[in-house]
Structure formats: structure tokens, C-alpha cells
Design a protein that fits this description.
Layout lengths: L13 H9 L10 H22 L6 H14 L3 E5 L2 H11 L7 E4 L6 H8 L3 E4 L11 H7 L4 E5 L10 H11 L4 E3 L7 E2 L2 E2 L6 E5 L13 E5 L2 H10 L4 E3 L2 E2 L10 H10 L3 H21 L15 E2 L5 E4 L4 H10 L29 H9 E4 L7 H15 L1
Parallel strand pairs: 2-3, 2-4, 5-8
Antiparallel strand pairs: 1-9, 6-7, 6-12, 8-9, 10-11, 13-14
Helix pairs in contact: 1-13, 2-9, 3-9, 4-5, 4-8, 10-13
Length: about 400
């Protein structure tokens, strides 16, 4: 599949405004968890009741079963659960013995947890700018950021599309540096037929409710191909203990609740169908935007060749008019969000790193221009048409 860069001749269709005005105003949330829950209500209730009846709430049989099922789904040798996606990143760094004085190369355009995990172990986040089309870290810039203190590379598979893992892995292998995949938004995504989270040394996933596979609260998972590394991850999540009250390592308390595991086990068999529905919605958006003649004014998501994008978020660029567009969509009861309005290098808590405005121009431009539209699997064609008509009304 060719890279999609969208630019077509502008067509002004005055009928679009009339259609938007004549259509009854509808509410389109950014995410509708109620719709998904409605289709699985009885199964989810039965799963929760099963755990309550068992009274096995911590690392019970549902947790072990979920780890096996995630390992099969991702084609990983090991899957180790933990309390959150943020903890997954922290535990991965701890398992690789990243510590104070070390450096980890990562992206400035991600959720806060990416860089926070690095800082939490005392290491220094070293940021590298993103590609303006795909929003992921640029491999060529990683090479230039590596020093003798670099102990890990942490690419993020943003919005559900894998970073360029072949190039990143080649750099890591050449320098003897492990790669931690932040796949919090990318379960089921693929890069050259390899599952996200299984290409690097450790993969880290989140089960936050808004993810493609979301729980009824926080939850996380780590994948690894090395037996000893997986063993360290399992120990670190329970205070560094393999045998009760005997601690070989200094770990943390980061165990996945059995209730969360039971909920996720109900949802996992539906994940492929949900991800495909998101991809279909993305294709429909593209067609609707093209039909509306908006591809010169709105930049749509670009998809790299040989990847499977699972569209955890559907992010467009609206240029300098982004904030005004958000206000317009809000007035029309359309949910949006900005992922992310402040790049990590400009966050107040990271001022000690010495970065400033202008250091990573593509990350900063993305923060100013992008907006996420509803993309959840249950989104209807009528709702998508309403979203695009509302944007068309604003642009025209």
C-alpha cells in the first residue's frame, strides 16, 4: 500500500451546507463505551461474578489465563501482566537495569508516561523529533542522539501505527542497545507482518478503557521473547520476589487485578472485529472528506507501507484554524480531543533537561495543528457523515 498523502483539486459544493443544516443535530461522542458494554453486558457481569465467587482477586487463574491468551494473540513467547501501561514502561526499564545517569532515546510527542517512566528510574529522556506524516520517531535522528550513556531506545507506536521498527532494531543491534516498544495504543498493529510489542526487547501495552482492548479500569501487559527477562519482569511486579517473603530484586507492587483480567478475557475475542471496524471507519472518513473536497484544507492520517494501522485515534491536521474548529465541533455536539497539546520537552516538569521551544519543530507543529475525531467501532455511517458535514460547514 502506498503512503497516503492527500491533496486533490478543491470542489466547492454549496449543497453540503444545506444538507448539514437540514440534518437533525446529533450527538457524536469522541468515545462511546456504553455501546460496546451493551453488546457484552451479560458476559461481563458473569465474568465479574465468577471472580467475586472465587475470592481470588490478586494474580488468580484469570490473570494467568489472560497472559496466555495475550501471548497467543501477539505471537509473543511471554506475556506478563501488571497494574497499568505506565507501570509496564517502568518495569521494562527496571528489568533492563536502566538507572540514574543513563540515557533513553525517545519521542517528545507522546503521552506523559513515556518520558515519566524514564525519569522515575533516574535516567535522562533524550528526545528525537517525529515524522510529520506518521507522528512517530524518526530512526535517522535516533542514531545521532546515541551516546556512551544510552541504555535503551523507546519508540512509541502512536495512534495505533507502528514506528519504523526494522530501522530502529538495526540501530539498536548495531550499538548493542535494547529497544522497548511503547505499544500502549497499538495492540494488534503490525509492522511487516510482525505484531507490535514483539519486535523489540520488551513490548508494553495499556488496557486503559479508551484503548482498543480496554478494561474496567487500569491494567497493563509486557511481552518478551527472552526467558530470563520475562522472569525478571514477573519478579519486579511483586516487590522483586519469586518466593513469598524472599526478595532477590527491589521491585514494586504492580499486579493486575483478577477482575480486570476477567473483563479483558471477555473482550479479547472481539478485538480483531473491533480493530477492523476502526480501519473501515478510517477508510470511510477518507472517502467522505474527499467527496466533500476538503483534502487541501484537512490533512488526513497517513499510513506507512507494510503496516497494519489499528486506529486507536483518528487524527487530522487543521492548521492554524485547529482551535476554532474544535470550538465549532463542540457547538455541534461532536467530541474531539488533542493528542497532545504540549510536547514532552516543553512540559514544566522536564525543564531541567534544558530543551526549549523550537528544538523539535515537527512535534511542536503537530501539537498546534492536530485534532482527534471519533473513530470507535460502533460509530455509524450517519454519525461520520455528520462529523464531516460539520467540518465542511466550518471550512466553507
Amino acid at each position: 500500500m502506498a503512503v497516503m498523502i492527500f491533496a486533490v483539486e478543491e470542489r466547492i459544493d454549496h449543497s453540503t451546507d444545506r444538507q448539514a443544516k437540514s440534518r437533525l443535530k446529533m450527538k457524536v461522542p469522541l468515545l462511546d463505551l456504553h455501546s460496546q458494554y451493551g453488546t457484552l453486558r451479560e458476559e461481563l457481569r458473569a465474568a465479574a461474578l465468577r471472580v467475586m465467587d472465587s475470592q481470588q482477586f490478586i494474580l488468580g487463574p484469570d490473570v494467568a489465563a489472560l497472559e496466555d491468551e495475550i501471548a497467543v494473540y501477539t505471537r509473543a513467547r511471554h506475556a506478563v501482566s501488571c497494574a497499568s501501561g505506565s507501570d509496564a514502561l517502568l518495569l521494562a526499564l527496571m528489568a533492563l537495569d536502566v538507572k540514574a545517569g543513563d540515557e533513553v532515546v525517545t519521542t517528545p510527542y507522546s503521552f506523559f508516561a513515556t518520558a515519566a517512566a524514564i525519569a522515575r528510574v533516574g535516567a535522562r529522556p533524550v528526545f528525537v523529533d517525529i515524522d510529520p506524516l506518521f507522528y512517530n520517531i524518526v530512526p535517522d535522528k535516533i542514531e545521532a542522539a546515541i551516546t556512551e550513556r544510552t541504555r535503551a531506545i523507546m519508540p512509541v507506536h502512536l495512534y495505533g501505527q507502528c514506528a519504523e521498527m526494522s530501522a530502529i532494531m538495526e540501530i539498536g543491534e548495531r550499538h548493542g542497545i535494547p529497544v522497548i516498544e511503547d505499544a500502549a495504543q497499538a495492540i494488534g498493529a503490525e509492522d511487516e507482518e510482525r505484531q507490535a510489542g514483539t519486535i523489540g526487547t520488551i513490548g508494553c501495552f495499556s488496557f486503559y478503557p479508551s484503548k482498543n482492548l480496554g478494561g474496567a479500569g487500569d491494567g497493563g501487559m509486557m511481552t518478551a521473547g527472552d526467558d530470563e527477562l520475562a522472569r525478571r519482569l514477573r519478579m519486579l511486579r511483586v516487590h522483586g520476589s519469586e518466593t513469598k517473603y524472599h526478595h532477590q530484586l527491589i521491585g514494586i507492587n504492580s499486579r493486575l487485578d483478577s477482575l480486570q483480567a476477567a473483563v479483558l478475557r471477555v473482550k479479547l475475542p472481539h478485538l480483531e472485529r473491533w480493530s477492523e471496524a476502526r480501519r473501515e471507519n478510517a477508510e470511510r472518513y477518507h472517502q467522505l472528506f474527499e467527496d466533500a473536497g476538503l483534502l487541501e484544507e484537512i490533512s488526513l492520517p497517513a499510513v506507512r507501507p507494510q503496516v497494519r494501522h489499528i486506529f486507536n485515534q483518528y487524527v487530522i491536521r487543521a492548521g492554524a484554524r485547529r482551535d476554532a474548529l474544535i470550538a465549532h465541533l463542540k457547538q455541534n455536539d461532536i467530541g474531539t480531543d488533542v493528542y497532545y497539546p504540549v510536547p514532552l520537552h516543553l512540559q514544566e516538569c522536564f525543564s531541567y533537561l534544558g530543551y526549549g521551544e523550537g528544538d523539535f519543530p515537527e512535534a511542536e507543529r503537530a501539537a498546534r495543528e492536530t485534532i482527534a475525531l471519533p473513530i470507535y467501532p460502533e460509530l455509524t455511517e450517519e454519525q461520520q457523515s455528520y462529523v464531516v458535514e460539520s467540518i465542511c460547514g466550518f471550512m466553507r
